[in-house]
């Protein structure tokens, strides 16, 4: 047991180092900070009453979007490099079980994303401070929710990377993310009395299947609550954590199952 944990930890640390050295990670990190700073420029173009809202809303949007892009890019690129170069066989002299590779990659990527979100969050707080926005604990909770959302995306990226090429894995993962962001809209459409989706039995069935299968990633976005001063309770954060944990474990298990049966040349 201790040896297995040691191997997983070694793979996680190697993943973190590889991500840190990756040019894509550096570029995304710089872009993330620039997007948060851009919220300051956009706020200057807005009317006085809306300036603070722009900083809060656009800043959180930038953090969420760049976290997801980082999860997709690194989740797809790094596991492909590990398989192609077989570097995990070099860092550990003993035989590695394939589930240890998936778990190590997941933990390493989550460590990377944690740091990325902390850096972007700090930039966001500085931007809000400059615009005299009140900073409260709900904004810190919003960053936690972004991390929970990224956890699902990482697990999905690892799943697709376990059998598909990097390009296809990236397309599948980002497509999954876009659908997940749209499930709440589909739910509203299904409750409507008119519309093509409601009247068509096929489209209605397809929409229901999407709603039931895909996660509702909209639950991790609390920008409206923050702007309207609606409290984000710890019970809600806990519920989102369990929601994220369930989907993450599901896709990690799928990734392990597929990766364990994959044949390498």
> Rg to the nearest angstrom?
20 Å
Tally of domains: 1
- Count the beta strands: 0
Runs in which pLDDT lies below 50 for 5 or more consecutive residues are none
* Overall morphology: globular
Describe this structure in words.
The protein has about 260 residues and is mainly alpha-helical. The chain has one domain. It contains eleven helices and no strands. The model has no long low-confidence stretch (mean pLDDT about 80).
Annotation keywords:
mainly alpha; about 260 residues
Write the layout of secondary structure elements.
Layout: H1 2-21, H2 23-45, H3 48-85, H4 88-91, H5 98-130, H6 137-161, H7 166-190, H8 196-199, H9 201-213, H10 223-227, H11 234-261
Helix pairs in contact: 1-5, 2-3, 2-5, 3-5, 3-6, 3-7, 5-6, 5-11, 6-7, 6-11, 7-9
Quick structural overview:
The chain has helices spanning 2-21, 23-45, 48-85, 88-91, 98-130, 137-161, 166-190, 196-199, 201-213, 223-227, 234-261. The mean pLDDT is 81.
């Amino acid at each position: 047991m201790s040896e297995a944990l040691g191997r997983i930890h070694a793979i996680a640390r190697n993943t973190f180092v590889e991500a840190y050295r990756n040019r894509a990670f550096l570029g995304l990190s710089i872009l993330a900070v620039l997007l948060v700073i851009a919220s300051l420029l956009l706020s200057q173009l807005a009317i006085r009453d809306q300036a603070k809202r722009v900083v809060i809303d656009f800043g959180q949007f930038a953090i969420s979007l760049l976290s997801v892009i980082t999860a997709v890019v690194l989740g797809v690129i790094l596991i492909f490099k590990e398989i192609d170069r077989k570097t995990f066989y070099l860092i550990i002299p003993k035989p590695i079980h394939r589930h240890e590779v998936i778990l190590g990659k997941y933990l390493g990527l989550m460590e990377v994303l944690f740091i990325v979100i902390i850096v972007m969050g700090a930039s966001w707080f500085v931007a809000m401070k400059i615009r005299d926005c009140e900073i409260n604990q709900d904004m810190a909770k919003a960053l936690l929710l972004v991390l929970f959302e990224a956890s699902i995306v990482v697990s999905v990226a690892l799943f697709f990377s376990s059998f598909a090429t990097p390009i296809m894995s990236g397309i599948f993962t980002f497509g999954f993310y876009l659908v997940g962001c749209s499930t709440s809209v589909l739910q509203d459409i299904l409750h409507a009395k008119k519309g093509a989706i409601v009247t068509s039995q096929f489209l209605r069935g397809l929409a229901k299947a999407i709603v039931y299968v895909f996660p509702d990633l909209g639950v991790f976005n609390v920008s409206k609550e923050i702007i309207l001063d609606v409290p984000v309770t710890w019970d809600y954060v806990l519920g989102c954590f369990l929601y994220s944990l369930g989907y993450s474990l599901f896709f990690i298990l799928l990734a392990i199952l597929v990766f364990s049966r994959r044949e390498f040349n």
